[in-house]
Amino acid sequence: MKYILIVSFILFSFSNSVCAQTNFGVKGGVSLTFFNENQEQFGENPETEVGYFGGVFLDVPISETFHIQPEVLYKGVGEFRFINAPIYAEYYVGRDFSLLVGPSLNYFFDFFTNSFKVRADVSAAYHFSENVEVNLKYTLGFEELTPNVLFLGLGFSL
Fold first, then answer.
1. What whole-number distance in Å separates Cα of residue 39 and Cα of residue 60?
2. Burial class of 31 by CB neighbour count within 10 A (0 to 12, 13 to 18, 19+)
3. What is the pLDDT of residues 8-58, one digit of tens each?
4. Residues 81-94: pLDDT tens digits?
5. Cα 63–25–87 angle (5° rounding)?
6. What angle do CA 141, 150, 35 make, to 5 degrees?
7. Rounded to two decimals, what is the model's pTM?
8. 133 and 117 Cβ atoms separated by less than 8 Å
9. Which residue would you say has higher pLDDT here, 20 or 98?
10. Which residues lie across from 99 on neighbouring strands?
11. Mind listing the domains of the chain with CATH numbers?
């Protein structure tokens, strides 16, 4: 966990000093987590659980249509809590619509074992104004027991 916070702090500090156009913001919303349990007698049995997320992000413009956007989010799903730190490459398809893709560093808090996982995120955002956006994100786990998650949220640039 210390490593995620240190890397996040370095990214935030570096990008803030490099680019004067950097925007800082907050985001939050709801999530749907899809657990796939393979039961020998009954086959695949998908289960869905509703959760929440909230955190901060930076928007670092590289060009008019390309931005880098690191985030640090706290997420809760049922009894599970974790930190999600994606680093997105954001491409503006149109003036108000962007697509984001990138790796996601995740630290899962558990009573028995704390674990670190790398996942992949794909996201789309519609920007109502310079300060307000709605985003839809899908997180894909690479391991058999890692759930996939769909997020719907709002972001506000400060």
1. 45
2. buried
3. 555 555 544 455 578 899 999 999 887 665 544 444 545 788 999 999 999
4. 888 899 999 999 99
5. 60
6. 55
7. 0.76
8. no
9. 98
10. 91, 124
11. 2-157 (2.40.160.20)
Q: Nearest-CA neighbor of 120 among 94, 100, 93?
A: 100
Tokens 């004067």: give the residue: 20
125/92 Cα distance (integer angstroms): 9
Three-state SS letters, the chain = CHHHHHHHHHHHHHHHHHCCCCEEEEEEEEEEEEEEEEECCCEEEEEEEEEEEEEEEEEEECCCCEEEEEEEEEEEECCEEEEEEEEEEEEECCCCEEEEEEEEEEEEECCCCCEEEEEEEEEEEEECCCCEEEEEEEEECCCCCCCEEEEEEEEEEC
Asked whether 138 and 150 are in contact (CB, 8 A), the reply is yes
